[in-house]
Amino acid sequence: MTPPTEPRELNASTIRETAIGFQASRVLLTAVELDVFTAIGEGSTTSDEVALAIGARPRSTDRLLNALCALGFLTKAAGRFTNTKEARRFLVRGSPGFMAGLGHTASMWKAWSGMTEAVRTDRPALRQTVNERGDQWLEPFIAAMHYRAEQQADRLVRAFDLTRVERVLDVGGGSGSFAMAFCRRRPGLSAVVFDLPNVVPLTRRYVAEAGLSDRVTAVVGDYLEVENLPGGFDLIFLSAVIHSNGPAENEALIAKCAWALNPGGRVAVVDFIMDDDRLSPPVGAMFALNMLVATDEGDTYTESEVRGWMESAGLSGISRTDTAFGTAIIQGRR
Description:
By secondary structure, this protein is α/β, with parallel strands linked by helices.
């Protein structure tokens, strides 16, 4: 759920609407997990036919399809179900607008179900590291990060002066979307994605599909564990990274980034940057809870916190640029 920019009026009706909001979410996410929309595709079909295609029971599949009609994802006529044009565009696997990231949203359901205990104990509902969660979790996660980045990357990199940038290190770069966007923006620029052992094969696949393997390479490593990052970079980029870590981990990470810079190089952090009372942006306040249930110490952080880590690492000329996506870019120069 994306919170409204202005608090809505609270009354019995809106409170109940919020309380039962999970029902519509669960219907959609179950349909995504079962690949219902792809099974229906461009045609119209009966619930029995869909049940056979997705490996489910006919009666329960029929009730799920009826609920999807009630929510506006499907239509039904003479006992046959059809995807709406929006469902065909966004929810059918292989379509140009396919929202692959919803698979990760379905994974998040389990973590968010443990929020009550997480608030009681300050411990996450998901205890495994990324490397321990398996491909069933990892591939939808990287797909979700890729989908988000693809909507933002080309616009976001325009905020950077790349005049003297020859080499970019994308720390925790996942699919490599931002690394590839930097390469598209400036001819001759090369980029390295630094990520975990089970992520890097996916990175290389996305980069190869984009035809940029000659300019974007991927290096295996854990930025929390290595003593030093690879060196010799003009820009080190951390998008959606600091929120996964605790404050001490981020301070150490920024110090490693500063060490890996060429003189005059910059570290750039892109994330939800909270105001001092941690209420704005509203999506960041909600995202802090996502980090509570999914990480040991992750959080959303304020500008003063990020500036403090950069100053401790010896970076100067620290600046902030707000983006059109609810995030901000904070840069510091060596």
